[in-house]
């Protein structure tokens, strides 16, 4: 039996004996934890906001482009039409020209990625800014904490 030792491994911090159960629980946790909800509390599509259709999980960075498969920060709930339409395109190149794109949903998605990534959990903002400045990279400034879909950013990161 293999032992999961790190955050990149599926069974890390999941209390399941069988890998299939752990995968189902992991996928279900994304639908439960994603903060964009429909009027009755059910999960909604991260891209268009539809809540009355069957949702799938979409890879923000596609697996074909090297995106991780079992990483919570790379998976978001998506309706089938958005998931199929996006395909393997880069997220913002596909999403921003769409009629259903909103700044609020984009902030929610980027907060989800940041709060569930390994970098946010183990690196201070000052270290990230110093790294970016050293390499000449641009990091968008966040003067105010965004209020996203009725959720404060602290609630998203607490999950």
Short description:
The protein is mainly alpha-helical and 159 residues long. The chain has helices at residues 19-33, 80-86, 91-95, 103-116, 118-122, 125-135, 153-158, and strands spanning 55-59, 75-79, 147-148, 151-152.
Helices and strands in order:
Elements: H1 19-33, E1 55-59, E2 75-79, H2 80-86, H3 91-95, H4 103-116, H5 118-122, H6 125-135, E3 147-148, E4 151-152, H7 153-158
Q: Could you list some keywords that capture this structure?
A:
single chain; 159 residues; mainly alpha; disordered N terminus
Number of domains: 1
Q: Let me know the number of strands.
A: 4
Beta fraction of the residues? 5-15%
In round numbers, the mean pLDDT is: 77
Question: What is the general shape?
Answer: globular
Secondary-structure-based class equals mainly alpha
- Main sheet specs: 2 strands, antiparallel
Helix content: 25-40%
Query: Rounded to an integer, what's the Rg over CA atoms?
Result: 16 Å
Total count of helical runs of at least 4 residues: 7
Listing every helix as H and every strand as E from the N terminus to the C terminus, the arrangement reads HEEHHHHHEEH
Q: Compute the separation of the termini in Å.
A: 29 Å
Strands of the biggest beta sheet: in what spatial order?
Answer: 1-2
Report low-confidence residues grouped into runs of 5 or more. Answer: 1-5, 142-153
């Amino acid at each position: 039996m293999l032992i999961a030792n790190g955050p990149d491994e599926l069974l890390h911090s999941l209390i399941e004996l069988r890998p299939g159960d752990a995968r189902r629980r992991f996928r279900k946790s994304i639908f439960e934890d994603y903060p964009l909800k429909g009027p009755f509390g059910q999960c909604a599509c991260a891209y268009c906001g539809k809540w009355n259709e069957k949702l799938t999980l979409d890879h923000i960075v596609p697996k074909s482009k090297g995106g991780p498969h079992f990483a919570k920060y790379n998976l978001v709930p998506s309706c089938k039409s958005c998931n199929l339409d996006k395909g393997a395109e880069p997220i913002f190149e596909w999403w921003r020209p769409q009629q259903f794109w909103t700044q609020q949903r984009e902030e929610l998605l980027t907060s989800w990625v940041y709060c569930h990534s390994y970098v946010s959990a183990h690196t201070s903002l000052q270290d990230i800014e110093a790294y970016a400045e050293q390499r000449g990279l641009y990091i968008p400034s966040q003067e105010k904490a965004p209020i996203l879909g009725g959720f404060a950013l602290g609630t998203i990161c607490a999950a």
